[in-house]
## 1
Amino acid sequence: MSEPLLIRYLQPLLGGRRSECFNLIHEAIANGWAAERLIQDVVWPAMAQVDRLYRDDRINAAVENMACRINRTVADQLQAHLPKLPPNGKCVLVACVAEFGEELGAQMVADLFQADGWQVCFIGGNVPHDELLSMVGELRPHVLLLFGAGPQAVPAVRGLIDLIRDIGVCPTMNIVLSGGVFNRVDGLWREVGADAFAGSAHDVLALASELPPREPNAPRLGIVKKRRRRRRRTAPKLQLETARTPARL
């Protein structure tokens, strides 16, 4: 079971003891743990626990920053140990908020997709809508994964999905949400018009692998279209990044 290792890892992680964390992971690799399992069962839940503790004001920003950066280094080291399956002909485009902790989660998901044979483009956050749309049109990905939005970013996510669907770029592409507020509020992914949701790294990969191509002009879940005046569009930014506020969902 991974729980004892997770507990052993969390203690030095929250204490900022880098070498102790690195040694635990190196020992686990030497003892036969698969890198994929360490990401999914140790580093990922540790990342989620750090986020919960910070949102509950049980740790401060300094502790969160230390833990996130240790996890980032561990994830970078584990990436080299992941299997390299043959290309499966599928492509995923991964975007996220600009916060360090959320980018770490998106990076781990991107690493797992790549190990599974997917072509992965990881663009991070703070990307203008027109540039993201251009990349979608160029890559024609099977999945657009939006990871880690906070409560303040929900309108931006909804606006981005509206824009993608209204313009009709890559209509067979599924838009999948994961992480952030979408992990904490049941059904919110439907309200913003996404095609699917998964709450963990393992679930995201399994879901994306099983999703059939989206039906063009398929009705959007949870969305009631209203008649509205036509107006000239501008090119807004992908403002998924938001500053933390004391009020957290």
## 2
Amino acid sequence: MSAKALAGELRLPLFIIRLDGVITKFMGETAAKLRLVFDALIETRGVYLFDEVDALGGERARSNDVGEIRRVLNSFLQFLEQDEPESLLIAATNHPELLDQAMFRRFDAVIEYPLPSPELARSVIRNRLANVPVGRLAWKTVDEAAAGLSHAEITLAAERAAKDTILVGNERVTTGVLIEALNERHARGHR
């Protein structure tokens, strides 16, 4: 969401780099695909998001590391240092503890998003439900269901509750529909 907001504010296109499409089992092919991404980064001004970068930037000193992925990480770090493009590069992870420390030195800023407090979770829910009628919500129950979810997961749950309410023809989003959507986000996170 931050990358989308930055792209909007900067009036630049947002490019999301899906690492599952970049990382391959063939030696050297992953680095070649990364080179294409960094060439595009120089050629086309935009906001480039490397999502789930821990798949690429894992600690090189780990004993279970594969040599090829270590070479890919080295290539990625070198690409980061080579040019000063007019593009904005963002890397996101839910597991910063897995990242090689060299990754942190290559970026100008590191922003951590802790899990939202109940007050902030309520604010996210109110914001996402602002355009749909909402019944009287049992906030204490909602707080309990939202605990442990990220901003993005709470946003998705609120949007899901609104869609479900509209699709079944109900007049208002209810506590039950919202709790169901929040519980679904918890279930998805534990798969």
## 3
Amino acid sequence: MFAAIAHRYDLNNRVHSLWRDQAWRRAAVALCRVKPTDHVLDAACGTGDLAEAFAAAGAGAVVGADFTAPMLTLARRKAERVRRRAGIISPRYVQADVMDLPFEDAGFDIVSIAFGIRNVTTPATALGEFRRVLRPGGRIVILEFSHPTNRVLRFVNAIYCGHIMPFSATILSGDRSGAYRYLPKSVATFADRQALVAMLADAGFADITQHPMTFGVCVAYLGHLPS
């Protein structure tokens, strides 16, 4: 399904977030307080937008991992096109299952996943893998869609995500896989904010904070692995 929409994935992200998706990613990176020595794993990296944001923030190394090969092809092409300032590294991309990561224990300082945890078959298994590959004192940041707490905005968002976006995104992408009918449903049925915080706590993360953005349409969850 994600292979079928890869070629229009970035365009749909920009259009249907009303050009806010990149700002959400930059905000998530800022929460992590990236240092030049940090090694970052961006899980379910898609076409590499969040991985590139970590690289631009000055991380020492960035690895993007995704299950879908066409997404990684686009991420690598994007990396080749980016004009980098002196000292800014290029992300490295690998094909991988986030529930069975091909990385050694305690190899990263930051693990991120943007709009991907709800698409994992068993999120708890993925969170366990993220904990495994993080060093003590490391950070995890999850970007995921949510629902505004304001009733009026919640209603408007439901109409947009449930009816308008699936139709226009399907046309824009030329998709026949049903991806843009599935994706809004996955948001509606995924764990709510408190449930996701509980999942992070159960996986061993502490000092978990929520950071709603754009009226609560998107939330960044930041957690820490105890030292």
## 4
Amino acid sequence: MKNLKDECVAWIRDWFAQNGPSCNAVIGMSGGKDSTITAALCARALGPGRVVGVAMPAEGQSLNEADEICAYLGISCLCLPIGAIEKECDALGALLPGGEFSLQSLQNIPPRIRMTMLYAVAQSMGGMVANTCNLSEDYIGYATLFGDAAGSFSPLGRLVVREVLAIGDDLGLPRKWVHKTPDDGLPGSCPDEEKFGFSYATLDRYIREGVCDDPEVKEKIDRMHRRNLFKTEILHIPSFIPDNL
């Protein structure tokens, strides 16, 4: 198999050559492995001077080492806390008939605010927004539509977690960042794998090899995949209307 790291670097370089030869890569830096590895790949492909990392902690959240990661990679780091914006959005729930937003909608507000901020930064600084999702998470819908599921280019979008980790190691990034236990960063939340009820290794094997030893886990993965396909499909448009109407 060809070297995934080199192929990703070449793909990013070619994508920018075609879509924005003078543009910067703008990346939301969560401190997790995906944003770290995406930023490192972009820095390798374009040079650190053309990569802008944006940390956007919510109220009470830490930077989760995002600033340290940016400094290590030699890329710009902007810190744009979203707590005040988040509170304003929460307050609008009072205007609903029930007087408040649902819990799930409240959880999805921060990632959608962050993506809005990323596009504002990109538009102001001549940039393109990176989608940092990987295939494993996309497969089961573990991303917020119009939040972290958005972006202009997606270097990790066809790679399962084990392949992303291999790229991080191949880049020589510190193990503490590449192999950091993944979680969604929500207050009182738990690690991803505990939340799923299965490991990324199990999910990756099922995606790549079609093998899952536990029938109940297989059914759960299939169910999550079916329910969340709309997040990755192209926008549905009525097919009965001809193009030359």
